[in-house]
Amino acid sequence: MTNILTFCTASAQELPRTALEILAAGRQLGDKLGNGKVQAALIGPDVEEHGETLVHHGADEVFVASHPRLQDHEADVILGTLQTVVQQLGPDVVLFPHDALSGGNVGPRLAYRLGTGIVTDCVGFEIKGDTIRWLRPVYGGKAMAYMVASGPVQLATMRSRAFEPLPPDSARQGAVHTLEIDVGAISSPVSLVERTQEKMEGISLDQAQIIVSGGRGMEDKEGFSALERLAQVLGAAVGGSRPAADLGWVPHSQLVGQTGKIVAPNLYIAVAISGAPQHMAGAGSSKTIVAINKDEDAPIFKVAHVGVVDEWQNIIPALTAACEEMLSD
């Protein structure tokens, strides 16, 4: 039997969607292997009540590590906790969400400590014989490649929205265990002095089903006001390209791209964005891409499902008005 461990950090108030996405990936992998047992490592302060939720969404077993020190999600503390969990449970596969904490910090460092391989930013997988081949974008999203992780344990991080959470089944049965881990004794070379958070209004990019993004061609911050009005009408989040974020037109927390957020909404409206590989690495997995750009040769038109060649000033206000009229009926 192959034991698949999915990793989730949570708070007492919230179980993130990514936890359910990773659980769905683990369940699918277990079913493809034919004998896969799916376990969930639930880490955070006072998170025990989420255990049954994970069982209802596909976990065979849930292992809870709860401690007040896990409140701030400090990478070294999370890493030490998860390393202990892996050593206690001995899984064959460990799956992480591909986010700043897990995919960009904890996952690779855990792989190093375990002396094993990791494949990051995966969007799928296939089974060839006894080998798991992990599917991930390469060359800035221009191609896809299968990769194999070598070592005693296979680690992989999964891109957000690559898997849909399974519908909850209240009839599913599974055990929820409490792990005895001395989290307080885990050493960390970094101490938290102060936590600051960039002020953000509206829907977050991570949760949005619709995203309206702007690029350098918006010309100034006032241009983004038009995008914000459209987003408000559609119930969408507002994003931006690297130039737009660097110029201060959108917060860096709303940057979409290789060095920002990787998103996969149902609808991505790219306004005055050229479509450079670095940006499309973050937005290329969107279900439908609508591109609005005055340059008919802009690279984004090669990947867009719908393209409009015109100045954004001629399109966005009219589109906003049309959407308002349709939604008011």
Unreliable spans are none
SS field, number of helical segments: 8
Let me know the average pLDDT.
92
CATH architecture of the largest domain: 3-Layer(aba) Sandwich
> What is the structural class?
alpha/beta
Radius of gyration: 21 Å
Task: Count up the domains.
Answer: 2
Residues in helix, %? 25-40%
What's the multimeric state? Answer: single chain
Distance between the termini: 55 Å
H/E element sequence: EHEHEHEHEEEEEEEHEHEHEEH
Biggest sheet overview = 7 strands, parallel
Instruction: Report the sheet-strand fraction.
Output: 15-25%
Number of strands: 15
> What is the highest CATH level, the class of the largest domain?
Alpha Beta
Strand numbers in spatial order across the main sheet? 5-9-4-1-2-3-10
The CATH superfamily of the largest domain bears the name HUPs
Could you say what the CATH topology of the largest domain is called? Rossmann fold
